[in-house]
Amino acid sequence: MILSKLAGRPFLLAVGLLVALVLPWFVYPPVAMDILCWALFAAAVDLLLGFTGLLSFGHAAFWGGSGYVTGLIALHSGLPFPVAVLGGALFAAVLALPIGFLSVRLRGIYFAMVTLAFAQMVYFIANQWRDVTGGENGLQGIPKELFGLDLSDPFFFYYAGLPFILAGLWVAWRIVRSPFGRVLMSIRDNPARARALGYSIDRYKLLAFVLSAALSGLAGGVFTIGHGFASLQGVYWTTSGQAVMMVVLGGIGTLWGGAIGAALVVQLHDYLATAGFEETGIITGTIFILVVLLFRRGVWGTARDLIAARQARGRPAPEPDQPKIGATV
Questions:
Q1: What pTM does this model have?
Q2: What is the rounded CA–CA span in Å between residue 271 and residue 266?
């Protein structure tokens, strides 16, 4: 309980903010930007998986679709990159409306497969609509401009994109700690009881789905601007799977776990790529299996439970209530 309480306190939030501010001083700035973008993406997936009980394999459609829209706005409108990023996030939310409307009535593996099917449809459109998306070549040369300032230096762009990531993480944090978030958790734990209490669970699931998609789109837009291109890899189903893996590694239903999982996976990929090892999936898959077997609640979730158990063992047992004078024993 101690970590779960700290997670809602300003102290731990301040630590997280400090880490985000100093990260590019200790990690290569493009890698640091990738960690933040994937952390927000994982938090968005966890909002649906950990707090609503819906496993989606289709969130690549929102991450990658937002990336394409962000790139098109930045390339053809000349507007500052924040406008392009927000336009991509808006597109992701609008795209999620029909997908969510047709999906949230399903549960379990059926929901996962339907979202995967929609994501593959987006992938097919992006691949075939070459005049707009560039097909296999994608969109290249996406500018990083902010009111005439050139942010091509990854170090400077990190701090330009950081407010968007922090704002997205704050929104996710506020959602799960709001009355709306409590309703989502009740739907996750006992949908029949939530329905009996008068909540329209399909409507709540749809809203959670759209919010999750918008946050995924925000992360995908910043990621696209940071790299300067949008490709088919962004809308491929493996992108969704990687976000889910980050959530599981860090701890489902924790939000903080997604950031930890993102840092582990991105850093590992960067290390293996730098070392010239191409089959990164073998290493990440092995680590994923080991973490699932050894840390059933993920890295953050397991650490939280271990500290809570140690705190519980250290507390003295409560003394039995002493009978009051004149009371019947």
A1: 0.88
A2: 9
